[in-house]
Amino acid sequence: MERPSPLVIVRAVRTLISVASFAFLFACGSEEEGLNPAPDSGTNAPNDSGTPPADSGVVGADAGFVDATPNDTGVVVDPPGELTLPAVTTGANGDSPEVNFELPAGVVSFMIVLEGPNDVTMIVKRLSGPGGVLVTDDDSALTQLERLFLGPWGAQFKSPNRVVQDIGISSSLFPNNPGVNVSGGSYTMVASAVRIQGQNGNPYQGTLTGKVLYRMAQASAGRLDLHLYFSGAGNLTAAAAPTDPLVQGALQKLSSVYAQANLTVGAVDYHDVDASFRTISGIDGSSDQLERMFRLTEGRGAGLHYFFVDRFEGGLPGGMVAGISGGLPGPPLRPGTNNSGVAVALAAINGDPEILGHVMAHEGGHWLGLFHTAEFIGTQDQLSDTPSDQTAGQNYLMYPAVGGGTMVSPSQSTVIRHHLEVVGG
Ligand SMILES: [Zn+2]
Predict the structure, then answer these.
(1) For residue range 227-249, what is the model confidence (pLDDT) as tens digits?
(2) How far, in Å, CA of 168 to CA of 104, rounded?
(3) Per-residue DSSP letters for 115-133?
């Protein structure tokens, strides 16, 4: 059986959620975003000064470790520790040499961020550490269906710690399920990269950079700041949105969903973007308009960045795509990249703030590191407290289509609080 082209796989990573209350459409692969504000957090005054907020960015560290002070209070120390990996040159097969790095004793979670040219797709191909293999390229556990739909990196999708590829910048979160034990010690990684041209994926020979961001404690609660961007879709503007019933109703819904994970919404900033982004075309990979829009987050600071557009074109045939997440997970503390935001389509939500908030929470869930409870091809998430069957799965936020419930399990809550964009509450 022929495998799908890398093009299909790349866009499979861009998890699409379709609106269909009765006919659940196959949404190939998965990925997106999610966050929630506190019920009484309200919103901040619109940011119309034209001056981006200070970019908290990441801690500067050219090499070696930045000490993150361990603590036993349950409050996460911000910012995270950071380790810059040596730049690597990929070979004729697109693979990097082995990269070794050391994490300090007491590390409880970390994220690997790989970066390359904006048109190059990359992934953590293999990773092993003190606890054994985290990411493998051994695809022997894949079913025939998975071989067909998961594509060349199906083994990584089925790895003990699931990872997916992405374009320009890719992020991976460890651990993203309770079966993975993360600790300090020595790790060995191989990255791999391709450049998609038409229907072909050609091994990328060139430079990749990377860093590891880590934490020494996980908070029992967290806070997430938001940035909302308006293209003029739905006649919404940054000036009007703070009092708009649709936007504010959706934020209330988002807050209530994320409250299940002890996440509250912190500051909310409002921005306008060019009207050319009202319709996002070529989400099948034939255009980079989505990535260009997400790069408008440059200089806007930390938090989850939501873009409100009219519609997406080039997606699922017959399906109305309601939202897309840049990255699964998205790159932490790194605005201005291909994957630094989440986009939601107002044409798909019929003016309903409940549906809009649901889509925002689902896509935000992807961006923070959550996969679908189960893909339509049967591949289940790696969390023991989410349903394995699609019927029960419909009660959960991360069911791959809108129309059901918005439950978030304890394991899912733990995963999203590991994402470094979530700060101590
Ligand atoms: Zn999804």
Answers:
(1) 999 999 999 999 999 999 999 99
(2) 28
(3) E--TTEEEEEEEEEETTEE
Does residue 258 sit in the same domain as residue 194? no
Please give the distance, rounded to the nearest whole angstrom, from the Cα atom of residue 35 to the centre of ligand 1: 14
Question: Which of 215, 237, 252 is a domain's end point?
Answer: 215
- Indicate if 291 and 415 belong to the same structural domain: yes
Ligand 1 mean position to 157 CA, how many Å? 15
Q: Which domain holds residue 361?
A: 20-41+220-424
- Structurally, the chain folds into a number of domains equal to 2
Distance 102 CA to ligand 1 centre (A): 33
- Among 215, 232, 261, which residue terminates a domain? 215
- Residue 44: is its pLDDT beyond 50? no
Ligand 1: distance of its center to the CA of 112 in Å? 22
CA of 333 to the centre of ligand 1 (A): 22
Say how many Å lie between the CA of residue 355 and the centre of ligand 1.
14
Beta strand residue intervals within 278-350, DSSP E: 279-280, 304-309, 311-312, 321-325, 342-345
Place of tokens 């003029």: 232
Instruction: Examine residue 205 and state whether it is found in any structural domain, yes or no.
Output: yes
Cα of first residue to Cα of last residue in the chain, in angstroms, is 50
State the pTM of this model.
0.85
d(CA 346, CA 355): 10
- Tokens 């809550």 correspond to what residue? 413
Residue 158 forms part of a structural domain: yes
How much is the average pLDDT of 37-58? 28
Query: Residues with Cβ within 5 Å of ion ligand 1?
Result: 15, 17, 32
Is residue 315 over pLDDT 90?
no
Assess whether pLDDT exceeds 80 at residue 135: yes
